[in-house]
Design a protein that fits this description.
six-stranded mixed β-sheet, DYW_dom, single chain, transit peptide, 6 strands, DNA-binding, 35 helices, zinc ion binding, mainly alpha, mitochondrion, TPR-like_helical_dom_sf
Amino acid sequence: MTKYKSIKRHLGSCRTLWQSAIPATLTDSEISSRVIDDRNILRRSLNSSKFGLHVLDLIQCGSLQPDRSLYNTLLKRCTQLGKLKEGKLVHFHILNSEFKDDLVIQNSVLFMYARCGSLEDARRLFDEMPCRDMVTWTSMITGYAQNESANDALVLFPEMLREGAKPNEFTLSSLVKCCGFIASYGYGKQIHACCWKFGCHSNVFVGSSLVDMYARCGYLGEARLVFDELGCKNEVSWNALITGHARKGEGEEALAMFVRMQREGYKATEFTYSALLGSCSSMGCLEQGKWLHAHLMKSGKKLVGYVGNTLLHMYAKSGSIWDAEKVFGKLVKVDIVSCNSMLIGYAQHGLGKEAVQHFEEMIRFGIVPNDITFLSVLTACSRARLLEEGKHYFGLMRKYNIEPEVSHYTAIVDLLGRAGLLDQAKSFIERMPIEPSVAIWGALLGACKMHKNTKMGAYAAQRVFELDPSYPGTHTLLANIYASVGRWEDVAKVRKIMKDSGLKKEPACSWVEIENSVHVFVANDLAHPQRDKIHKLWEELNQKIKEIGYVPDTSHVLLFVDQQDKELNLQYHSEKLALAFALLNTPPGSIIRIMKNIRVCGDCHSAIKYVSLVVKREIIVRDTNRFHHIRDGSCSCGDYWLTRLSILLAFRSCTAL
DNA sequence: CTAGGGTTAG
């Protein structure tokens, strides 16, 4: 409550500041009282006011005959402000003036249309123009590039060359951007060659977009090469490279470049911080994120726009939801993204009440919720078993004219199912106006598992199985199931399907951040330097947790092995290795944070709960679904989760495989 | 008259 009040107050003072900062502009009457063709005054007025509508009025009523330069200024203003309607009006006037065949004016009109998002108008004009120069072509290409129509821009380029127009650095940087957008390394290299041919390769704009293009195509090495050869660099060039590394999950390289950037005298911008913080959130690097936060504050930057939101997201995604709240309170401007990030954070931490409160406050604050907002709040409600609230918000979607998508329906099935209303959940699925998805049946199955309803569970499991022909994990597991009952022909069939469709199973891994470096583990990791210590620790822990009640759950292992081997297999799941490593390398009493790229395994979850009792530590596990805050032997998730494995196990147990 | 880099769920 209070945080919103303080923001409102803050915004209030900003507004008055902003108003007083506007230079005095001419009013309509002031303009009329002056000599009408004092065009300098008009132009100044045009540039300093929000939009020179009064100037437009004067043209409309015929009391002003603009010259070429005033038309251009008007068009430029329309372009800058994205005023399509006004721009069209100006175009209309131009068509009735002596400048209708003026190439420069036509180019400005074309670009105005393109920049205002009306590519049809731009293209119509482009096609009708009797003669086109390089700027015409460039404006059209740029227009396509900025409106995400990369292919349209790229096909225009050969036509341009055929007509004998020579591209310049403006044309080429736009084209390079297009190649990056569609991540086409092939086209990218060809355009790169053109940059050399037309002597634009050393231009900063072209160079920066080349760096970005290669990075987007996944060729960081070539991006680096172009970057190093770039004689004239600026912040954007650095950011393109840093963002490239960050996007690819190469946080360490990104950070190294960040350090180098500053050593070489370039100032980090909001873009730089956003990219780095973004990579911290996906990796869950809280310590590095905090360091960047401090760095950001020291640089004197305000938490505006993207940076603020990425910082907030970093804390939420790294498991520090209360720090995220603090950042939220310090944002200069709260928008839908900040609110959604908070809601998603609450949902992932199972904080239903906080999510509901946050939702209500954002509505009061006047922020219009979108589909993500509703999905987040519904998820939060279902996880916290806030049945009535969840139903209420689902109904509220209609009022905001948001058509529920399959994900929203899934959340409701989950909500009803967790509350034990299995029949309601089932009939809800049957009454749904859209086709139920795998996730929907999965949610019902999860609920059946939770409330031990085997009959409906079998039904749901079959639906899941029918609808999920393409998921890589399904095939691997299915092959395992067939193998375990000796149906080798079926195994071969599944393997063939996998091979034909090029499906690959992503290896499961876990990681921890210790003293600014990330340590990654895969199951049965044999290569780690501390391997022996880790295994020894687990031997001890296993003994201790078994004494206080831990029973290894071997049902999750689908291999042809005897009981002892199964236990051995479980023991070295990646999250367990990461935990042992963290226990060995962190000070006593500190919170341990483990990240995992798939959902945490049921046996490991149980083992970690017992370990939290033995070692008296708080352990936070972030998997792809949510945060597990494990302390004193219990977990914030309330032991509810559903893995693909358990779906298939349910399926196997209820069919005669 | 024309150009390059960024956040949000499952």
